[in-house]
User: What shape does this take?
Amino acid sequence: MKLGIPVVAVNGTASEINEHFGMSEHFAILDVEGDKIVKIDFVSDRADLREHKTPAALLGEKGVNIVLAGGIGPHMIKELLDAGLLIYRGAVGDVEQAFEDYKAGMLTEVRTAGDME
Assistant: This one.
């Protein structure tokens, strides 16, 4: 399983969650087996790049199945759901904390673009 998490800057599992998913330029990609992170990679993209991709395309290309997000708007939710990714919101802190909160069932699954409350 692969998890994608928007981060402010690249700093391993201590990378801080970017609270605004749609504005994130960096994403942590966690390869997870069971309840352990076995590998962490990062991908970056900016709107001004010639080969710019949407977050859904970028994460989908990397094989991400699940997105952990802090704040995420309805447009991004629709785009990710349409791409077949599962979304959990409410992630705070850093990558490690978001993963631990996900494992503990503390994040809220988003099933439609209207699930923002």
About this structure: The chain is about 20% helix and 30% strand. The first strand starts at residue 2 and ends at 7. The CA atoms of residues 20 and 40 lie 21 Å apart. The domain at 2-110 is CATH 3.30.420.130 (Nucleotidyltransferase; domain 5).
